[in-house]
Amino acid sequence: MLLGSVVYITYLDASPLIVPHWQDHMTNKYSAFSLFRESLRGHKGWQPAWRSPKPQAEYDVVIIGGGGQGLATAYYLAKNNGIKRVAVLEKGWLGGGNTGRNTTTIRSNYFHPESVALYEFSLNLYENLSRELNYNVMFSQRGLMTLIHSEPDLEMANRTVNAMQLNGIDATIISRAEVQKRAPVLNFRDDARYPIHGAVWQGRAGTARHDAVAWGYARAADRLGVDIIQNCEVTGLLTEGGICKGVETNQGTIRAARVGSAVAGNSSVVADMAGYKLPIQSYALQAFVSEPLKPIMNTVALSPATGTYFCQSDKGGVVIGGALDRVPSYGQRGNLPMQEDVLSGLLEMAPALANVKLLRHWAGIVDVTPDSSPVIGPTPLPGFFLNGGWGTGGFKAIPAGGTIFAHLLATGTHHEISQPFDPSRFTSGRLVDEGAASGIAH
Ligand SMILES: Cc1cc2nc3c(=O)[nH]c(=O)nc-3n(C[C@H](O)[C@H](O)[C@H](O)COP(=O)(O)OP(=O)(O)OC[C@H]3O[C@@H](n4cnc5c(N)ncnc54)[C@H](O)[C@@H]3O)c2cc1C
Questions:
Q1: Quick one: which of 428, 429, 407, 427 has its CA closest to 416?
Q2: Whose CA is nearest to atom 22 of ligand 1?
């Protein structure tokens, strides 16, 4: 029996996929003790991690979209703002959008102070997230290196690192030898097409298990009374006297004092229901995972020259990402030319991976703004609020995005961190241009 518990604890660390069935119905808490007790009674006491309620006729707040941003918003609304009559409406399954499709990188090494305030706040929240949610999101601060391939790269890297250090971010430049020590699998040949001279290093950056973040927030929000309703598609907005009063769904009309949209690549579609246009374009962004390998690299490596980045998951797969597909699209498949670009970039970075087989490949639809920064704020339709425009980088921002959007929905006014990301910046011209912030010119 004891051995059984030890095995399960090991499993808990290795694969949160099994965790949702293991909720303790007495303490409602995951712990070594509840695991041990369940092992003694044949694991019969575990409950689903969240309920599947029927939608009520009315809520204080309805959130459209059960990705990380929507679920975190619901959690913080209940926890920070005391608003518990909240529903999250998801047209598919939780985390089935970009939250469950991303390459899991978390960092705060942005250029502008407004962005640093947002992403550093998020990174700080990630550092305690597993404990806060009582759910192992497998946050691993293994560091991120943005490679320096040339003298101009080095100048840009110095500029970036200076800006980051002024903003209080733990960014430094590391030498070629230090890069080699951390990632010997990279291409250090003198005749490499993109030689490695060093890297910009953020040691507190890292990765987290993406769907565990969605499940952890869902379970924690459910425990605070939030209704999470899957297979519930919002098909229209209910308006009365020019004010948003709720939503129309495939499960009927649901009234709400405030409605928030957190639908990523579908932001323009939902904005269309509200009768206005957004400065957002939707593109496919692809990701790739290889067959599992023994440990080859315990960090995240990004090459601005090729636009490719990769890390290794805890299961051993090499997780590979790159730039956006070239044409706007709602097709969650991705196109072949970009696959070729990303994978040839990987082979420039690490030729030793040439014979590794790809296991899976997919795309998500990301919502890209002209300045590559998110859009959070009220909309032209009173009562209807927007959280979107996260593009290629909103996974790292889930805890912060949820906190500030909850504040907006609860109070009707901006949190100080979200103020610079108000949609009005597209008319005032006060953009927060982070187009090169990921090292890839999205
Ligand atoms: C391949 C790829 C790699 C990425 N890599 C990273 C990375 O390494 N680091 C990082 O920080 N970010 C990354 N991102 C971006 C990140 O995944 C997203 O910015 C983030 O997940 C957005 O979260 P969200 O909750 O807003 O959106 P989503 O997770 O997409 O959730 C939106 C949800 O809304 C639902 N929805 C849409 N329309 C409706 C409707 N009418 N009614 C009801 N529900 C609806 C969708 O089904 C979906 O589940 C990546 C994205 C992709 C695709």
A1: 407
A2: 394
